[in-house]
Amino acid sequence: MNTSGPARIFDRLGTATRPSASGRLGGRAIVLGGSIAGLLAARVLTDHFDDVVIVEPDSLVDDAAPRHGVPQSRQVHTLLPAGRVQLDRWYDGFSDDLLAAGAGLATTENSRVYYNGRLKVAVPETAMVMSTRPFLEAALRRRALALPNLQVVGSRAVGLDVVGEAVACVRLDGGDTLTADFVVDATGRSTRLGHWLEDAGWPAPPLQRMRVDINYTTALFHRDEVDPEVAFTFASWAIGRTPAGLAPSIINAVEGDRWIVMMGGYADDKPGRNPDALRAICAQLPPPFPQATAGELLEPITGYTQADSRRRDFHALARFPARLAVVGDAAASFNPIYGQGMSSAALHASCLSEYLTPGPDLGRPARAFFDLQRVIVDAAWQTSAVPDLALPHVGARQTAMTRAGQAYANMLIDGTVTDVALARKFSDVTFMRAHPSSLTSPAVAARTLALAAARAIRPAHR
Question: Is 312:332 a contact under the CB 8 Å cutoff?
Protein backbone atom coordinates (compact mmCIF):
# COMPACT_ATOMS: atom_id res chain seq x y z
CA MET A 1 0.00 0.00 0.00
CA ASN A 2 1.30 3.45 -0.92
CA THR A 3 1.50 5.51 2.27
CA SER A 4 3.51 8.41 0.85
CA GLY A 5 1.22 9.81 -1.88
CA PRO A 6 -0.50 13.17 -1.22
CA ALA A 7 -3.94 11.62 -0.67
CA ARG A 8 -2.55 9.10 1.83
CA ILE A 9 -0.61 11.80 3.66
CA PHE A 10 -3.68 14.06 3.71
CA ASP A 11 -5.80 11.29 5.24
CA ARG A 12 -3.13 10.53 7.83
CA LEU A 13 -2.79 14.17 8.89
CA GLY A 14 -6.55 14.41 9.40
CA THR A 15 -6.52 11.82 12.17
CA ALA A 16 -8.39 12.43 15.41
CA THR A 17 -5.90 10.32 17.39
CA ARG A 18 -3.17 11.97 19.39
CA PRO A 19 0.37 10.69 18.91
CA SER A 20 2.00 8.58 21.59
CA ALA A 21 4.27 10.40 24.03
CA SER A 22 7.77 11.24 22.82
CA GLY A 23 10.88 12.59 24.48
CA ARG A 24 11.61 16.26 25.03
CA LEU A 25 13.42 18.02 22.20
CA GLY A 26 14.58 21.17 23.94
CA GLY A 27 14.08 23.77 26.62
CA ARG A 28 12.17 26.59 24.96
CA ALA A 29 10.02 26.89 21.87
CA ILE A 30 8.65 30.24 20.73
CA VAL A 31 5.48 30.88 18.72
CA LEU A 32 5.17 34.23 16.98
CA GLY A 33 1.48 35.12 16.98
CA GLY A 34 -1.40 34.15 19.25
CA SER A 35 -4.35 33.53 16.92
CA ILE A 36 -5.77 30.12 16.03
CA ALA A 37 -2.71 28.89 14.10
CA GLY A 38 -0.38 30.01 16.89
CA LEU A 39 -2.47 28.57 19.71
CA LEU A 40 -2.67 25.19 18.01
CA ALA A 41 1.04 25.14 17.21
CA ALA A 42 1.76 26.09 20.83
CA ARG A 43 -0.34 23.17 22.06
CA VAL A 44 1.67 20.74 19.91
CA LEU A 45 4.95 22.24 21.11
CA THR A 46 4.03 21.78 24.80
CA ASP A 47 4.38 18.04 24.22
CA HIS A 48 7.98 18.40 23.06
CA PHE A 49 9.58 21.36 24.88
CA ASP A 50 9.96 22.28 28.53
CA ASP A 51 8.52 25.75 27.99
CA VAL A 52 6.52 27.35 25.20
CA VAL A 53 6.32 31.13 24.81
CA ILE A 54 3.77 32.90 22.63
CA VAL A 55 4.90 36.35 21.50
CA GLU A 56 1.81 38.43 20.71
CA PRO A 57 1.35 42.23 20.73
CA ASP A 58 -2.44 42.06 21.15
CA SER A 59 -3.86 41.38 24.58
CA LEU A 60 -4.83 37.73 25.06
CA VAL A 61 -7.05 38.43 28.06
CA ASP A 62 -10.10 36.25 28.54
CA ASP A 63 -12.71 38.11 26.54
CA ALA A 64 -14.37 37.79 23.17
CA ALA A 65 -13.45 41.17 21.70
CA PRO A 66 -12.11 41.39 18.13
CA ARG A 67 -8.32 41.68 18.03
CA HIS A 68 -6.45 44.32 16.07
CA GLY A 69 -4.18 41.66 14.57
CA VAL A 70 -7.15 39.80 13.05
CA PRO A 71 -8.75 42.31 10.67
CA GLN A 72 -11.19 39.66 9.44
CA SER A 73 -12.37 38.81 12.97
CA ARG A 74 -15.78 40.51 12.59
CA GLN A 75 -16.60 38.51 9.48
CA VAL A 76 -18.36 35.14 9.24
CA HIS A 77 -16.37 32.13 10.43
CA THR A 78 -17.70 28.58 10.34
CA LEU A 79 -15.66 25.75 11.84
CA LEU A 80 -15.56 23.02 9.21
CA PRO A 81 -15.49 19.35 10.24
CA ALA A 82 -11.74 18.92 9.62
CA GLY A 83 -10.90 21.89 11.82
CA ARG A 84 -13.29 20.70 14.50
CA VAL A 85 -11.60 17.28 14.59
CA GLN A 86 -8.17 18.84 15.07
CA LEU A 87 -9.29 21.32 17.72
CA ASP A 88 -10.87 18.47 19.66
CA ARG A 89 -7.75 16.40 19.11
CA TRP A 90 -5.47 18.90 20.81
CA TYR A 91 -7.93 20.40 23.31
CA ASP A 92 -10.19 17.67 24.67
CA GLY A 93 -13.88 18.42 24.22
CA PHE A 94 -13.23 21.86 22.76
CA SER A 95 -16.18 21.93 20.36
CA ASP A 96 -18.48 20.61 23.09
CA ASP A 97 -17.36 23.56 25.22
CA LEU A 98 -18.24 25.95 22.38
CA LEU A 99 -21.68 24.43 21.96
CA ALA A 100 -22.34 24.47 25.71
CA ALA A 101 -21.44 28.17 25.78
CA GLY A 102 -23.97 29.00 23.06
CA ALA A 103 -22.34 28.32 19.69
CA GLY A 104 -24.64 26.96 17.01
CA LEU A 105 -24.41 23.57 15.33
CA ALA A 106 -25.20 23.28 11.64
CA THR A 107 -26.45 19.77 10.94
CA THR A 108 -28.04 17.93 8.06
CA GLU A 109 -31.45 18.71 9.57
CA ASN A 110 -31.10 22.47 10.07
CA SER A 111 -28.86 23.48 7.14
CA ARG A 112 -29.92 24.73 3.73
CA VAL A 113 -27.48 25.07 0.83
CA TYR A 114 -28.58 26.62 -2.46
CA TYR A 115 -26.82 26.61 -5.80
CA ASN A 116 -28.16 28.75 -8.63
CA GLY A 117 -31.34 29.15 -6.60
CA ARG A 118 -31.89 25.39 -6.23
CA LEU A 119 -31.92 23.68 -2.85
CA LYS A 120 -29.18 21.06 -2.74
CA VAL A 121 -29.66 17.60 -1.29
CA ALA A 122 -28.57 17.21 2.32
CA VAL A 123 -25.37 15.34 3.09
CA PRO A 124 -25.88 12.98 6.04
CA GLU A 125 -23.66 13.09 9.11
CA THR A 126 -22.25 16.54 8.44
CA ALA A 127 -21.93 19.07 11.27
CA MET A 128 -20.26 22.48 11.49
CA VAL A 129 -19.84 24.70 14.53
CA MET A 130 -21.13 28.25 14.10
CA SER A 131 -19.83 31.12 16.23
CA THR A 132 -18.19 34.49 15.86
CA ARG A 133 -14.42 34.43 15.47
CA PRO A 134 -13.76 36.37 18.72
CA PHE A 135 -15.94 33.89 20.66
CA LEU A 136 -14.00 30.92 19.28
CA GLU A 137 -10.60 32.54 19.82
CA ALA A 138 -11.44 33.47 23.41
CA ALA A 139 -12.43 29.88 24.18
CA LEU A 140 -9.23 28.60 22.58
CA ARG A 141 -7.10 31.09 24.52
CA ARG A 142 -8.64 29.94 27.80
CA ARG A 143 -7.64 26.38 27.06
CA ALA A 144 -4.16 27.28 25.83
CA LEU A 145 -3.30 29.62 28.69
CA ALA A 146 -4.24 26.92 31.18
CA LEU A 147 -1.38 24.73 29.95
CA PRO A 148 1.26 24.55 32.69
CA ASN A 149 4.30 25.06 30.44
CA LEU A 150 2.91 27.87 28.27
CA GLN A 151 3.28 31.60 28.80
CA VAL A 152 2.63 34.76 26.80
CA VAL A 153 5.00 37.67 26.22
CA GLY A 154 3.11 40.82 25.26
CA SER A 155 5.41 42.16 22.56
CA ARG A 156 6.01 42.16 18.82
CA ALA A 157 8.73 40.13 17.13
CA VAL A 158 10.90 42.32 14.90
CA GLY A 159 13.51 39.82 13.71
CA LEU A 160 15.40 36.59 14.15
CA ASP A 161 19.04 35.96 14.95
CA VAL A 162 20.52 33.07 13.01
CA VAL A 163 23.73 31.60 14.43
CA GLY A 164 25.54 29.31 12.06
CA GLU A 165 22.82 27.36 10.28
CA ALA A 166 20.03 27.66 12.86
CA VAL A 167 17.71 30.22 14.42
CA ALA A 168 18.98 31.02 17.91
CA CYS A 169 16.75 33.80 19.22
CA VAL A 170 13.85 36.13 18.53
CA ARG A 171 14.33 39.88 18.66
CA LEU A 172 11.47 41.84 20.23
CA ASP A 173 10.22 45.37 19.83
CA GLY A 174 12.10 47.50 22.35
CA GLY A 175 15.41 45.65 22.09
CA ASP A 176 14.79 42.54 24.19
CA THR A 177 15.64 39.08 22.89
CA LEU A 178 14.41 35.57 23.67
CA THR A 179 16.62 32.56 23.07
CA ALA A 180 14.88 29.59 21.49
CA ASP A 181 15.46 25.95 20.63
CA PHE A 182 12.67 26.12 18.03
CA VAL A 183 10.60 28.96 16.53
CA VAL A 184 7.24 28.83 14.76
CA ASP A 185 6.05 31.82 12.74
CA ALA A 186 2.27 32.26 13.02
CA THR A 187 2.15 36.01 12.35
CA GLY A 188 -0.35 35.81 9.50
CA ARG A 189 -0.51 36.64 5.81
CA SER A 190 1.56 39.82 6.24
CA THR A 191 4.44 37.99 7.92
CA ARG A 192 7.83 39.70 7.80
CA LEU A 193 9.72 36.41 7.88
CA GLY A 194 10.91 36.68 4.27
CA HIS A 195 12.48 40.07 5.01
CA TRP A 196 14.05 38.75 8.23
CA LEU A 197 15.60 35.85 6.35
CA GLU A 198 17.03 38.16 3.71
CA ASP A 199 18.41 40.48 6.41
CA ALA A 200 20.21 37.47 7.89
CA GLY A 201 21.65 36.43 4.52
CA TRP A 202 19.11 33.71 3.65
CA PRO A 203 16.77 33.56 0.66
CA ALA A 204 13.12 34.50 1.07
CA PRO A 205 10.54 31.89 0.02
CA PRO A 206 8.90 32.16 -3.41
CA LEU A 207 5.59 34.01 -3.02
CA GLN A 208 2.60 33.16 -5.22
CA ARG A 209 -0.34 35.54 -5.36
CA MET A 210 -3.71 34.72 -6.88
CA ARG A 211 -5.86 37.81 -7.43
CA VAL A 212 -9.26 37.58 -5.72
CA ASP A 213 -10.56 41.06 -4.80
CA ILE A 214 -13.25 39.64 -2.52
CA ASN A 215 -15.33 42.02 -0.42
CA TYR A 216 -17.23 40.96 2.69
CA THR A 217 -20.16 42.75 4.26
CA THR A 218 -21.18 41.34 7.65
CA ALA A 219 -23.93 42.26 10.09
CA LEU A 220 -25.22 40.93 13.42
CA PHE A 221 -28.96 40.81 14.10
CA HIS A 222 -30.95 39.80 17.15
CA ARG A 223 -32.24 36.27 16.72
CA ASP A 224 -35.74 35.40 17.75
CA GLU A 225 -36.52 31.82 16.81
CA VAL A 226 -37.55 32.87 13.32
CA ASP A 227 -37.40 29.27 12.18
CA PRO A 228 -35.80 26.88 14.65
CA GLU A 229 -35.48 24.32 11.87
CA VAL A 230 -33.06 26.52 9.90
CA ALA A 231 -29.82 27.63 11.55
CA PHE A 232 -27.42 27.72 8.60
CA THR A 233 -28.03 28.84 5.02
CA PHE A 234 -25.50 29.21 2.23
CA ALA A 235 -26.37 30.49 -1.24
CA SER A 236 -23.93 30.40 -4.15
CA TRP A 237 -24.01 30.66 -7.93
CA ALA A 238 -21.96 29.45 -10.87
CA ILE A 239 -19.46 31.88 -12.36
CA GLY A 240 -21.33 34.08 -14.79
CA ARG A 241 -24.73 33.36 -13.22
CA THR A 242 -24.28 35.35 -10.03
CA PRO A 243 -26.95 38.00 -9.38
CA ALA A 244 -25.57 41.44 -10.07
CA GLY A 245 -23.00 42.44 -7.50
CA LEU A 246 -23.39 39.39 -5.29
CA ALA A 247 -21.05 36.49 -4.56
CA PRO A 248 -21.92 33.66 -2.13
CA SER A 249 -23.97 34.67 0.91
CA ILE A 250 -24.28 32.99 4.27
CA ILE A 251 -26.29 33.25 7.47
CA ASN A 252 -25.38 31.52 10.75
CA ALA A 253 -27.11 31.22 14.10
CA VAL A 254 -24.36 32.13 16.58
CA GLU A 255 -23.88 32.63 20.30
CA GLY A 256 -25.80 35.32 22.15
CA ASP A 257 -29.09 34.72 20.30
CA ARG A 258 -27.76 36.39 17.17
CA TRP A 259 -27.75 35.91 13.43
CA ILE A 260 -24.55 36.74 11.62
CA VAL A 261 -25.23 37.57 7.97
CA MET A 262 -22.59 37.90 5.27
CA MET A 263 -22.82 39.21 1.73
CA GLY A 264 -19.89 38.72 -0.63
CA GLY A 265 -18.91 40.66 -3.72
CA TYR A 266 -15.99 40.76 -6.11
CA ALA A 267 -13.92 43.63 -7.50
CA ASP A 268 -15.93 46.87 -7.25
CA ASP A 269 -19.02 45.17 -5.82
CA LYS A 270 -19.51 45.74 -2.10
CA PRO A 271 -23.13 44.68 -1.57
CA GLY A 272 -25.18 45.56 1.47
CA ARG A 273 -22.93 48.15 3.08
CA ASN A 274 -25.92 49.93 4.67
CA PRO A 275 -28.95 48.40 6.42
CA ASP A 276 -31.49 49.24 3.71
CA ALA A 277 -29.31 47.80 0.95
CA LEU A 278 -28.56 44.68 2.98
CA ARG A 279 -32.23 44.04 3.74
CA ALA A 280 -33.16 44.60 0.08
CA ILE A 281 -30.70 41.89 -1.01
CA CYS A 282 -31.80 39.49 1.73
CA ALA A 283 -35.44 39.92 0.73
CA GLN A 284 -34.53 38.13 -2.52
CA LEU A 285 -32.73 35.25 -0.79
CA PRO A 286 -34.13 32.07 0.77
CA PRO A 287 -35.25 31.87 4.41
CA PRO A 288 -34.15 32.81 6.95
CA PHE A 289 -32.34 35.73 5.25
CA PRO A 290 -35.45 37.94 4.91
CA GLN A 291 -36.86 37.19 8.36
CA ALA A 292 -33.57 37.45 10.25
CA THR A 293 -32.51 40.77 8.72
CA ALA A 294 -35.93 42.29 9.42
CA GLY A 295 -35.01 42.25 13.11
CA GLU A 296 -32.81 44.51 15.22
CA LEU A 297 -29.37 45.35 13.84
CA LEU A 298 -27.07 45.02 16.86
CA GLU A 299 -23.85 46.62 15.59
CA PRO A 300 -22.76 48.77 12.66
CA ILE A 301 -22.26 46.80 9.46
CA THR A 302 -18.61 45.97 8.87
CA GLY A 303 -16.69 45.36 5.68
CA TYR A 304 -13.52 43.48 4.84
CA THR A 305 -11.55 43.23 1.61
CA GLN A 306 -8.93 40.64 0.67
CA ALA A 307 -6.99 41.35 -2.49
CA ASP A 308 -5.46 37.95 -3.09
CA SER A 309 -4.76 34.41 -2.03
CA ARG A 310 -1.11 33.86 -1.09
CA ARG A 311 1.26 30.98 -0.56
CA ARG A 312 4.90 31.03 0.44
CA ASP A 313 6.63 27.89 -0.81
CA PHE A 314 9.19 27.25 1.92
CA HIS A 315 9.58 23.70 0.63
CA ALA A 316 11.13 25.11 -2.56
CA LEU A 317 14.06 26.82 -0.80
CA ALA A 318 17.48 25.24 -1.34
CA ARG A 319 18.72 26.92 1.86
CA PHE A 320 16.68 27.42 5.00
CA PRO A 321 17.78 27.82 8.63
CA ALA A 322 17.19 25.01 11.08
CA ARG A 323 14.90 25.27 14.14
CA LEU A 324 12.23 27.21 12.25
CA ALA A 325 8.74 26.38 10.97
CA VAL A 326 5.80 28.41 9.63
CA VAL A 327 2.06 27.79 10.11
CA GLY A 328 -1.31 29.28 9.25
CA ASP A 329 -1.72 32.29 6.97
CA ALA A 330 2.03 33.01 7.21
CA ALA A 331 2.44 29.93 5.01
CA ALA A 332 -0.71 30.20 2.90
CA SER A 333 -3.98 32.13 2.97
CA PHE A 334 -6.94 31.61 0.69
CA ASN A 335 -10.05 33.34 -0.56
CA PRO A 336 -12.06 33.33 2.70
CA ILE A 337 -15.33 32.60 0.87
CA TYR A 338 -14.32 28.92 0.87
CA GLY A 339 -13.99 28.85 4.68
CA GLN A 340 -10.80 26.76 4.80
CA GLY A 341 -8.52 29.06 6.78
CA MET A 342 -9.13 27.71 10.30
CA SER A 343 -9.12 24.09 9.15
CA SER A 344 -5.89 24.60 7.21
CA ALA A 345 -4.25 26.13 10.28
CA ALA A 346 -5.42 23.19 12.39
CA LEU A 347 -3.98 20.71 9.89
CA HIS A 348 -0.67 22.59 9.93
CA ALA A 349 -0.53 21.77 13.64
CA SER A 350 -0.98 18.12 12.71
CA CYS A 351 1.97 18.46 10.30
CA LEU A 352 4.04 19.94 13.13
CA SER A 353 3.14 17.07 15.42
CA GLU A 354 4.02 14.41 12.85
CA TYR A 355 7.36 16.13 12.24
CA LEU A 356 8.30 16.47 15.93
CA THR A 357 7.00 13.19 17.37
CA PRO A 358 9.75 10.90 16.00
CA GLY A 359 12.41 13.18 17.52
CA PRO A 360 13.98 14.85 14.46
CA ASP A 361 17.43 16.39 14.38
CA LEU A 362 16.55 20.03 15.05
CA GLY A 363 19.99 21.06 13.88
CA ARG A 364 18.84 20.40 10.32
CA PRO A 365 16.17 22.38 8.40
CA ALA A 366 12.59 21.22 9.02
CA ARG A 367 12.14 19.99 5.44
CA ALA A 368 10.04 17.03 6.52
CA PHE A 369 7.58 19.46 8.10
CA PHE A 370 7.36 21.65 5.01
CA ASP A 371 6.85 18.59 2.79
CA LEU A 372 3.89 17.56 4.95
CA GLN A 373 2.50 21.09 5.01
CA ARG A 374 2.77 21.30 1.23
CA VAL A 375 0.18 18.51 0.95
CA ILE A 376 -2.31 20.59 2.97
CA VAL A 377 -1.50 23.84 1.16
CA ASP A 378 -1.75 22.23 -2.28
CA ALA A 379 -5.13 20.73 -1.40
CA ALA A 380 -6.60 24.01 -0.14
CA TRP A 381 -5.06 25.93 -3.05
CA GLN A 382 -6.60 23.53 -5.55
CA THR A 383 -10.09 23.87 -4.08
CA SER A 384 -10.00 27.64 -3.62
CA ALA A 385 -7.41 29.54 -5.63
CA VAL A 386 -7.70 27.44 -8.79
CA PRO A 387 -11.51 27.93 -9.17
CA ASP A 388 -10.94 31.66 -8.74
CA LEU A 389 -9.13 31.61 -12.09
CA ALA A 390 -12.59 31.54 -13.66
CA LEU A 391 -13.60 34.88 -12.12
CA PRO A 392 -13.99 37.38 -14.98
CA HIS A 393 -12.25 40.24 -13.16
CA VAL A 394 -9.16 38.11 -12.47
CA GLY A 395 -8.31 38.07 -16.17
CA ALA A 396 -6.38 34.81 -15.99
CA ARG A 397 -5.20 33.24 -19.23
CA GLN A 398 -7.50 30.37 -20.09
CA THR A 399 -5.76 27.31 -21.49
CA ALA A 400 -7.47 24.24 -22.90
CA MET A 401 -6.58 22.43 -19.68
CA THR A 402 -8.06 25.08 -17.39
CA ARG A 403 -11.23 25.29 -19.49
CA ALA A 404 -11.61 21.52 -19.35
CA GLY A 405 -11.05 21.54 -15.60
CA GLN A 406 -13.63 24.28 -15.08
CA ALA A 407 -16.15 22.47 -17.28
CA TYR A 408 -15.71 19.29 -15.25
CA ALA A 409 -15.98 21.22 -11.98
CA ASN A 410 -19.23 22.82 -13.14
CA MET A 411 -20.67 19.43 -14.09
CA LEU A 412 -19.63 18.01 -10.73
CA ILE A 413 -21.17 20.87 -8.75
CA ASP A 414 -24.36 20.65 -10.80
CA GLY A 415 -24.47 16.96 -9.92
CA THR A 416 -24.19 17.70 -6.20
CA VAL A 417 -27.51 19.52 -6.31
CA THR A 418 -29.49 16.29 -6.68
CA ASP A 419 -27.08 13.39 -6.09
CA VAL A 420 -26.27 12.53 -2.48
CA ALA A 421 -23.21 10.42 -3.33
CA LEU A 422 -21.58 13.24 -5.31
CA ALA A 423 -22.63 15.80 -2.71
CA ARG A 424 -20.90 13.76 0.00
CA LYS A 425 -17.70 13.43 -2.03
CA PHE A 426 -17.72 17.15 -2.79
CA SER A 427 -18.38 18.22 0.80
CA ASP A 428 -15.64 15.89 2.07
CA VAL A 429 -13.16 17.80 -0.08
CA THR A 430 -14.46 21.31 0.58
CA PHE A 431 -14.63 20.51 4.32
CA MET A 432 -11.01 19.26 4.13
CA ARG A 433 -11.87 15.73 5.15
CA ALA A 434 -10.60 14.26 1.86
CA HIS A 435 -7.95 15.09 -0.72
CA PRO A 436 -9.15 16.83 -3.92
CA SER A 437 -7.88 13.92 -6.02
CA SER A 438 -10.89 11.94 -4.80
CA LEU A 439 -13.09 14.09 -7.05
CA THR A 440 -11.34 12.84 -10.18
CA SER A 441 -11.39 9.15 -9.34
CA PRO A 442 -12.84 6.94 -12.10
CA ALA A 443 -16.02 6.26 -10.11
CA VAL A 444 -16.69 9.94 -9.35
CA ALA A 445 -15.84 11.04 -12.90
CA ALA A 446 -18.14 8.40 -14.39
CA ARG A 447 -21.00 9.42 -12.11
CA THR A 448 -20.44 13.10 -12.85
CA LEU A 449 -20.45 12.59 -16.62
CA ALA A 450 -23.49 10.29 -16.52
CA LEU A 451 -25.52 12.83 -14.56
CA ALA A 452 -24.40 15.61 -16.90
CA ALA A 453 -25.51 13.56 -19.89
CA ALA A 454 -28.88 12.91 -18.26
CA ARG A 455 -29.35 16.62 -17.58
CA ALA A 456 -28.52 17.39 -21.21
CA ILE A 457 -31.27 15.02 -22.33
CA ARG A 458 -33.80 16.11 -19.69
CA PRO A 459 -32.82 19.61 -18.54
CA ALA A 460 -33.63 20.12 -14.89
CA HIS A 461 -36.36 22.61 -14.12
CA ARG A 462 -34.76 25.86 -12.96
Answer: yes
**251-274: pLDDT as tens digits:** 999 999 999 999 999 888 899 999
C-alpha–C-alpha distance, residues 439 and 409, integer Å = 9
pLDDT tens, residue by residue, 215-254 = 999 999 999 876 667 889 998 887 656 676 778 899 999 9
Q: pTM of the full predicted structure?
A: 0.94
| Whether 354 contacts 336, CB under 8 Å | no
**CB 300: neighbour CB atoms within 10 A?**
10
